[in-house]
Amino acid sequence: MRSPSLTIIGSDVPPSWQQMLSDLITDPQELLTLLRLDAREKPLGLLAAEQFPLKVPRWFVSRIEPGTWKDPILRQLWPSVEEQIDAPSYVVDPLQESRFNPVPGLLHKYTSRVLLTAAPHCAVHCRYCFRRHFDYQGNAPSRSDWQAAFAHIAADARIEEVLLSGGDPLALSNRQVGWLLEQLEAIPHINTVRIHTRMTIVLPQRIDAELTSMLAASRLNIVLVSHANHAHELSEESDVAFRLLASSFVTLLNQSVILAGVNDSSDTLIALSKALFAQGVLPYYLHLPDAVAGTAHFDVAISRAQALVADMQAQLPGYLVPRLVREEPGNDSKTRYA
Hints:
Blueprint (H helix, E strand, L loop, with lengths): L16 H6 L1 E2 L2 H8 L10 H6 L4 E2 H4 L10 H6 L28 E5 L2 E7 L26 H9 L6 E6 L7 H12 L6 E5 L2 H4 L6 H9 L3 E7 L8 H11 L4 E7 L8 H13 L3 E6 L14 H14 L7 E4 L8 E2 L2
Parallel strand pairs: 4-5, 5-6, 6-7, 7-8, 8-9, 9-10
Antiparallel strand pairs: 1-2, 3-4, 10-11
Helix pairs in contact: 11-12
């Protein structure tokens, strides 16, 4: 049972998503107090919290069960001392993204698609994030600086799809999202924009009528890839958000990361696929964790992950079984394991 004390309480007028996004929990002690937890049971990693601070919307905290450290959402958010364990094979840039960063704000890893780091920030700091050490300061162009990225895209007719990522592109205002879409719509060989976001999960109120109308009006095919790792992350509010997006002709997919202690069981992954489908979203990728410094405690062996996907295949229709993948630097596509 979720604690009613953690729901957002205010005046008769509900807060806007902008207000909710600006009022985040960043103090570990405040989170412990709200969830009635004792840090002695799961010590805070002081260095981890300094390097990659706690950050989570208050609304998303209301999805966490108070009084237990075993909650799968909490495990994704708490800056644990486990992050400070030195694992030699875990590095700050395991995907070697600096090799594929020809101009600020743009990553060009694959032939037919590029990624724009549209926003240098997220609404939430997921502890397993593969970009927790990324140089956002050097990849947060101003509007005028973005022109170099658009020129790179316009000069290469092989590029057909642009991914808006970050950070989280939906942490931007509707005005800025609309401006980015306009720039991409003006490039004739771009036919698809894919938006990678966690907002549909951690702050689904962000999906408003202005945004969905803008997406519906675009000449581009719009694909939104949400990011949920556990069925507990889905809510009535996320259902509303996904329905709004679907009514605006947006293709809805979900990617997950398989994480030890969060979703590394076939029952959990099956429940997630079913919950996503109930809200109109198809499972897309199940990522093996990247070897990012500070995240070794989330690792799941490939053989274990393959066994879990085999269990899913035995119990679910094929369209509800995500592809088990890992990204290898320099490869033409993600490596598929199932």
